[in-house]
Write the structure tokens for this entry.
Amino acid sequence: MAIKTHSVRVWDWPVRLTHWSFALLVPAMWITADNSQWGWHMRLGHVLLALLIFRVIWGVIGTDTARFSSFVKGPLAVIGYLRGGYDEKGNKGHSPLAALAVLALLGLMSVQVGMGLFAGDPFDGATGPLNPLVGVMTADWITTTHEWFWWLVFGMIGLHLSAIAIYGMVRMENLVGAMIGGRAEKKPSVSDNPPAQWTKALSALAVSVAIAGWIYAGAPPFA
Ligand code: HEM
Ligand code: HEM
């Protein structure tokens, strides 16, 4: 029996904008590294850094479905989800299992970006802006790790895309459409996610751009 649904706002524009930027920037980071386009690797890397900082701030001050506190649940909720006890149409936002994938994706991207800031060899090729803050041996270890860690990021993205494809086929849920347009079909009991407040979004953007800019400058002391 078809259940009655209505169109509900589920994802605010900052979540969607950061998401599709990640989906473009991460492959771009790999392509620029693979082609030794270090100028672009650095520039785009700082844009990615600013967006990651923004998403973390937005995860605290953003709308309901953007907040970590609203979707990160304990192991019991994840087990309940795996046993089929989660009502997709009666809830909006990331499911308890998807929340783990979100944390893994944001976490792995942050570690990769964080290592890139210190990577490189000052006597040979490009270096991240914070490279002078660590010794040559440490930077060398970080660079080697940055080179292979990429495969973990890549693997997690593969898992992310497979999960979405399988979910779409098994549950007939158009998750991708919701991440593009921001809306999904939900039960009548589910209400709209509130719209993003521009003042909050712009403040979060200003803070993240300022931090990324300061790092780009090599994190100079304030005094
Ligand atoms: C480099 C590639 C990608 C990365 C790093 C990535 C990362 C993420 C992250 C961090 C989230 C959580 C969103 C948030 O709350 O901020 C997410 C959710 C999502 N992503 Fe991606 N993504 C990538 C590519 C894609 C692509 C290509 C698609 C579609 C074909 C896609 C579809 C989705 C969907 C549908 C969700 C929402 C899942 C849900 O309903 O819980 N992603 N992704
Ligand atoms: C998701 C983000 C990133 C990915 C996927 C990525 C990927 C890679 C890969 C695959 C390499 C190895 C290339 C090779 O030697 O063949 C590399 C090297 C490097 N990356 Fe990244 N990177 C990311 C972020 C960053 C950031 C944010 C920075 C700094 C702002 C950075 C700075 C560097 C540097 C300095 C090297 C070494 C260059 C050299 O060997 O001369 N990366 N990156």
Q: What stands out?
A: The helical segments are 13-34, 38-61, 68-71, 75-82, 96-118, 136-171, 175-181, 198-216. DSSP finds eight helices and four strands in the chain. The chain has one domain: 14-176+198-216. Strands lie at 6-9, 120-121, 124-127, 183-186.
